[in-house]
């Protein structure tokens, strides 16, 4: 059929678990387009959007932006890409995010989950130094709490559906990518 549904892989994991790093590796070997929900929201702030101030204050608090905003940005980026295979990085983060996508009849082929202890996440983010407003110890703690309370239930949901591919992300980046690569090679 001409209008095939897109192939979507969700990439989840705590703040600093390596979602962005590993997605950048994947697109060099497999024909996916990488869409980071967080990057799209930060670009929306910079664009001077009417929602910019609201998005900015939510990110600064580590809170999850209302689904309509994030989903609109993701759908627009999917359309503009010209591709039909997507790594969706950092989304869905809560039940509301998940359900909106399901209502659009978009089911992930599988869900990558980067598992990493909190101390390691903290270290990585504090070393990143890219000027992100949410990269300070106080906000990192809030981001981690939101991850545990809102996102881990989504991870469990996909595990119960047999869709979860869990990866030990506490290892060096090259070793993590070996595992990621094996998953993509066998799934696609
Ligand atoms: N690094 C990476 N891998 C490493 C390894 N194996 N060993 C050692 N170091 C490693 O990596 C983080 C740092 O660690 C980098 O310096 C890297 O070199 C190093 P990165 O790949 O950037 O990790 P990532 O998981 O992408 O971390 P990020 O901080 O982007 O994760 P978050 O989930 O916190 O951020 P995101 O941008 O997705 O979201 C930010 C905010 O936007 C959210 O808190 C929320 O407020 C909002 N948001 C929504 O509201 N809705 C959404 O759908 C998405 C975001
Ligand atoms: Mg990221």
UniProtKB/TrEMBL annotation:
Cofactor descriptive note: Binds 1 Mg(2+) ion per monomer.
Sites where the protein binds ATP: 16-21, 128, 171
UniProt binding sites for a ribonucleoside 5'-phosphate: 42, 63-65, 90-93, 132, 143
Cofactor(s) of this protein: Mg(2+)
Protein name per UniProt: UMP-CMP kinase
Secretion signal, residue range per the UniProt entry: none
Domain remarks in the Swiss-Prot or TrEMBL record: Consists of three domains, a large central CORE domain and two small peripheral domains, NMPbind and LID, which undergo movements during catalysis. The LID domain closes over the site of phosphoryl transfer upon ATP binding. Assembling and dissambling the active center during each catalytic cycle provides an effective means to prevent ATP hydrolysis.
Reactions that this protein is recorded to catalyse: CMP + ATP = CDP + ADP; dCMP + ATP = dCDP + ADP; UMP + ATP = UDP + ADP
Family per similarity comment: Belongs to the adenylate kinase family. UMP-CMP kinase subfamily.
Binding site for CMP: 97
């Amino acid at each position: 059929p001409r209008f095939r549904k897109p192939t979507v892989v969700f990439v989840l994991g705590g703040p600093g678990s390596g979602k962005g790093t590993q997605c950048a590796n994947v697109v060099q070997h497999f024909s996916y387009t990488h869409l980071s929900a967080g990057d799209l929201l930060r670009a929306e702030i910079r664009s001077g959007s009417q929602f910019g101030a609201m998005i900015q204050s939510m990110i600064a608090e580590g809170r999850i932006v209302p689904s309509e905003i994030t989903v609109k940005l993701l759908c627009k980026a999917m359309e503009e890409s010209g591709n039909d295979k997507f790594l969706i990085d950092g989304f869905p983060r809560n039940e509301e995010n998940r359900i909106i996508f399901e209502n659009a009849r978009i089911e992930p082929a599988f869900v990558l989950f980067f598992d990493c202890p909190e101390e390691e996440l903290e270290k990585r983010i504090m070393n990143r130094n890219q000027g992100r407003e949410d990269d300070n110890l106080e906000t990192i703690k809030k981001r981690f709490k939101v991850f545990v309370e809102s996102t881990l239930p989504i991870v469990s949901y996909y595990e119960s559906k047999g869709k979860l591919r869990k990866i030990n992300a506490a290892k060096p980046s090259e070793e993590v990518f070996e595992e990621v690569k094996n998953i993509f090679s066998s799934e696609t």
